[in-house]
Amino acid sequence: MGEIVLAAKITHVPTMLLSEQPGKLQGCRQQAIDGQRKIMRRAREAGADTVIVLDTHWLVNAGYHINSNARFKGCFTSHEFPHFIQNLEYDYRGNPALGDAIAAKATEKGVFTLSHQVETLDLEYGTLVPMHFMEPGDMPIVSIAAWCTVHSLEASRKLGEAIAEAVRESDAKVLLLASGSLSHKIWENDLYEANNGTFTISREFNRQVDLRVLELWQNGEISTFLKMLPEYAQYCCGEGGMHDTAMLFGALGWDAYTGKGELLGEYFPSSGTGQANVIFPVV
């Protein structure tokens, strides 16, 4: 029987890649990189052999979608930030059977979901950036679209349930990653440079709510957080509508989840948004 052995809400900011390169941003995101490497170490120690990524950079406008290719190989340049992410090479294994099983379970719950094995369906950087640093090696990955423009958080919760059920009926030991920011109001273009945009948040309101959310997570007050999730996603411009977060907690048991989040490193602003790496133990 399979299981989710570790879960986390993670950042995927492009400046993590620039942090590796010579220049004025070298080292600027080291604590975030270290946090993601620690997540992978913990996952391996817990027996993880598969990674599922809930990717808020994969936009979908109808239904839910899973990239279940048997292999992901390519060279990625971001359309959004071509000056930040260029020629990022990748080569990962996939798990078509698990992707298919998740889609079937979700559709049974009334959440129409398609699993795709299409060679030209590439990965988005919400998957590619964390995988670059976590280095899954031979661990297969499954990427699920979580930038959901016309979807309800309730449907995404059910998709999370489907993920957990499909994993239990498999032989996979899964690291589940919700890849997306906390608040996500990027600086207006005309204000970016004047406000040192790479390292600041665009709205103090958003920062204060982010910090409260992290406090709730660390205190294990998940049911309280879930009651505020719709408004948090709306008023703080949650990335991808925060559907990754709804899927994550759906997989963990929603308001019945009794674990406490563990913040790895620091909360940090990036290009106006709020970012963090937070582990959620499976209890």
Question: How many beta strands in the DSSP annotation?
Answer: 10
Question: Quick check: average pLDDT?
Answer: 97
Strand content: 25-35%
Q: Strand pairing plus helix content: what structural class?
A: alpha/beta
Q: Percent range for helical residues?
A: 25-40%
What about the largest sheet? 8 strands, mixed
Numbering strands along the chain, what is their spatial order in the largest sheet? 6-3-7-2-8-1-10-9
Gap between N and C termini: 17 Å
Give a brief outline of the structure.
Keywords: Oxidoreductase. By secondary structure, the chain is of the alpha/beta class.
Q: Would you write up a description of this structure?
A:
- InterPro entries: HPCD, Xdiol_dOase_suB.
- The structure is a single chain.
- With 283 residues, this protein is an alpha/beta fold.
- Helices cover 35% and strands 25% of the residues.
- The protein contains eight helices and ten strands.
- The protein has helices at residues 15-18, 30-45, 96-108, 125-134, 153-168, 204-218, 222-235, 243-252, and strands spanning 3-10, 50-60, 64-67, 71-76, 88-93, 113-116, 141-148, 173-179, 262-270, 273-281.
- The chain has an eight-stranded mixed sheet, sandwiched between helices.
- A hairpin with a 2-residue loop joins strand 9 and strand 10.
- The model has no long low-confidence stretch (mean pLDDT 97).
